[in-house]
Write a structure and sequence with these properties.
single chain, five-stranded mixed sheet, two-stranded antiparallel ribbon, alpha+beta
């Protein structure tokens, strides 16, 4: 936990308070500067989703005494703009944002959840910012080890196979730490040992997580740490937000993790997908079929055939 939404509330400023009381001015994106230093956005759990630090902005309706803040889902056309950043309710002094060894990005979870939601475990890589207690962080003891395996960790926690287990452990609406600590996470070294033709599981995961995560300029430090640079050492441009491409990449990751967990029976995989009925309803309404399940089964065959770069089209 970085900042408690109650006991640390004296540190929070709305945009109006920043401009009128702190003399702050925008630096671009969602960062402000002022006489006392920089102010960073305060992320809360509702603002993130799988591989997406721009899932929602926070809208304030002061007239609503019971629920003054609401999530405003960011549409795909806004996410297609790599300069777009979500709008928080509050900003906090940069001096209060303490990340190990000056890390310019970190790894956040979504605390408030429910086994009846579309998905239960939600994790993503996020830029340096303030984080409320409903967006807890996974921080390293060894920063270099953290950098080397963070892609595997976020992919693992966002996998359907792990979410299936997480849902069975949930008894309330909080993804409490004792639940997170019980989850069956694949050891990082196993990703280097398992191969699908010319590529290891580690190669496949790193490429997919990089593309899914690096869709905006504020994640350039993460892209640099993943080695996504040109011959001159400059960070390459962000990947274009493409919902169709993202669905395929996530299905590929789900297929890979089914193999890592030893779940290869196609009926078992169909059953696991059936326990996520909201996703099935939503996809059937849009595509006329449970498309992520079909893509995952197709990728199961492609990986078994040692063709991890197959061009799968449904």
């Amino acid at each position: 936990q970085m900042l408690n939404m109650t006991s640390d509330a004296h540190l929070f400023r709305t945009r109006e308070e920043l401009e009128e009381q702190e003399g702050a001015y925008p630096l671009g994106g969602n960062i402000f500067a002022g006489p006392t230093g920089n102010w960073l956005p305060l992320y809360v759990g509702r603002m993130i989703w799988h591989f997406d630090h721009r899932a929602a902005s926070v809208e304030v309706n002061a007239a609503n005494l019971h629920h003054a803040t609401l999530s405003s889902a960011v549409p795909d056309d806004r996410k297609a703009d790599p300069h777009f950043v979500p709008t928080p309710q509050y900003w906090v002094p940069e001096s209060e944002v303490d990340l190990p060894s000056g890390l310019p990005w970190t790894f956040a979870l979504r605390l408030i959840t429910n086994p009846t939601n579309a998905r239960t475990m939600v994790a993503t890589i996020v830029p340096k910012a303030g984080f409320g207690n409903n967006a807890p962080l996974l921080l390293p003891e060894d920063v270099e080890a953290y950098r080397s395996c963070i892609d595997r960790m976020v992919a693992n926690l966002n996998s359907l196979a792990l979410d299936f287990v997480a849902r069975s452990k949930m008894q309330g609406t909080n993804m409490n730490w004792y639940i997170v600590e019980q989850l069956p996470v694949i050891p990082p070294e196993r990703f280097d040992k398992v191969r699908f033709g010319p590529k290891s599981a580690a190669d496949i995961v790193r490429a997919a997580v990089l593309e899914l995560t690096y869709t905006a300029h504020d994640m350039a430090p993460f892209a640099r740490d993943m080695g996504h640079v040109d011959d001159s050492g400059n960070v390459r441009p962000p990947f274009v937000w493409d919902s169709e491409r993202r669905l395929t990449l996530r299905a590929k990751l789900d297929a890979l993790f089914f193999y890592l967990y030893g779940i290869t029976d196609r009926d078992d995989i169909r059953y696991i997908y059936s326990t996520f009925p909201i996703i099935e309803r939503e996809e059937t309404a849009v595509h006329g079929r449970y498309r992520s399940r079909e893509l995952c089964l197709a990728w199961m065959n492609a990986l078994a055939a040692n063709t991890p770069d197959a061009d799968i089209r449904l």
